[in-house]
Amino acid sequence: MEKPRIEELRLRLEEVRARDDYDDRHACCWQGYLAALLEWDLITPNEHQELSKIVPVGEPDPTLVVFLG
Fold first, then answer.
1. Axis-axis angle for helices 6-18, 24-39 (nearest 10)
2. Residue in 4, 5, 6 with CA at minimum distance from that of residue 54
3. Cα dihedral 1, 40, 48, 25 in deg (nearest 10)
4. DSSP secondary-structure letter at 19?
5. Burial level of 17, CB count in 10 A (0-12/13-18/19+)?
6. In whole angstroms, what is the distance from residue 40 CA to residue 20 CA?
7. Taking Cα atoms as reference points, which of 16, 7, 64, 46 lies closest to residue 38?
8. pTM of the model
């Protein structure tokens, strides 16, 4: 699998976030996608953190269970 370009991911996330129908469900889907990219070493932890800030998830953040078990 080819590594994604971070700038391309950033632009996609910003476009999704700007949509009128964007909500927490979209954020959760994108957070799962970003988590998979991180797990497969296709993005770095720093890139994951940077990209995750673009599509934040409401509290309590369900993505923490994935990382913390």
1. 170
2. 6
3. 90
4. S
5. middle
6. 31
7. 46
8. 0.85
Q: Give the H/E segment covering residue 25.
A: helix 24-39
Q: How confident is the model at residue 67 (pLDDT cuts 50, 70, 90)?
A: low
**What's the pLDDT tens digit per position in 11-63?**
999 999 999 999 989 998 999 899 899 999 999 999 999 999 999 888 877 77
- The gap between the terminal CA atoms of the chain, to the nearest Å, is 26
For residues 62 and 17, the answer to whether their CB atoms sit within 8 Å is no
**For residue 35, what are its two tokens?**
């988590």
Token pair 């971070």: residue: 6
